[in-house]
Amino acid sequence: MGADLVLTCVKDGYVSSLRPIETAATDMDNSGAPLVTAKSGSPRPDLGIAYDDANGAVSFFTLLSEDDGGLVLPLGVTVSLSPSSGDGPFFTNAENLFERSATSTVGGLGFFFNLAPGDYELTFDDPRADCAPISFPFGAFGYPAPPTSVKFPIRAGFVTDQVGVLCTPKSDLSGLDAGARDR
């Protein structure tokens, strides 16, 4: 109960994955958080980088809650990594393709590549919303570090899959310019 665990997932021919979870005070079922991986050995020429097997990577996400209870992928959330390391962040669009020029979320996921092994923290910032780490009762998605960060491990040759936050719109957006309110 309340323990931080790391699941290690390895399959020949595929990228190895780590899934950091925080256990709950109840029975846990991680079936709602499938593991997604890719074939191994493919550099990222579309991003101008190559994988270094001595390092690792992390995939991250942001979700935004809507008034009707639904969830969407928000635009414009900035993500910072501590300690600073590797290549990124790189953001994917709604079609799951990298948007090379993006400096904040545009839909889908984001990634940091070539991170030296160790422990890291991602911090999420959205001027229109409060973003809190996700820690569902069924686990997954990293170790929450409130109010806006998620901690996770990086191991050589693994992708840490996925860490993220749930953003809730701020009730008063009057202090933001019109462009920021409409994002």
| CATH architectural name | Sandwich
How many H/I helices? 1
CA-atom Rg in angstroms: 16 Å
Total beta strands = 13
Structural class assignment: mainly beta
CATH class: Mainly Beta
Number of domains: 1
Low-confidence stretches: 136-140, 176-183
What is the name of the CATH superfamily? Immunoglobulins
Q: Major sheet, described briefly?
A: 9 strands, mixed
Distance between the termini: 39 Å
* Helicity, as a percent range: under 10%
Oligomer: single chain
Q: How would you spell out the order of helices and strands?
A: EEEEEEEEEEEEEH
The percent range for strand residues is 35-45%
Report the mean per-residue pLDDT as an integer: 77
Morphology call: globular
Quick overview:
Helices cover 3% and strands 43% of the residues.
Feature tags:
mainly beta; single chain; disordered C terminus; 4-stranded antiparallel sheet; 183 residues; 13 strands; 9-stranded mixed sheet; Immunoglobulin-like; 3% helix
Written account of the structure:
By secondary structure, the chain is mainly beta. Strands 1, 2, 3, 4, 6, 7, 8, 10 and 13 form a 9-stranded mixed beta sheet that branches. The chain contains 1 helix and 13 strands; from the N terminus they run βββββββββββββα. Residues 136-140 and 176-183 have low confidence and may be disordered.
Which helices and strands appear, and what pairs or packs with what?
Blueprint: E1 4-9, E2 16-22, E3 56-65, E4 71-72, E5 78-82, E6 87-92, E7 98-99, E8 109-115, E9 118-125, E10 129-133, E11 143-145, E12 149-154, E13 158-169, H1 178-182
Parallel strand pairs: 2-13, 3-13
Antiparallel strand pairs: 1-2, 3-4, 3-8, 5-9, 6-7, 6-8, 9-12, 10-13, 11-12
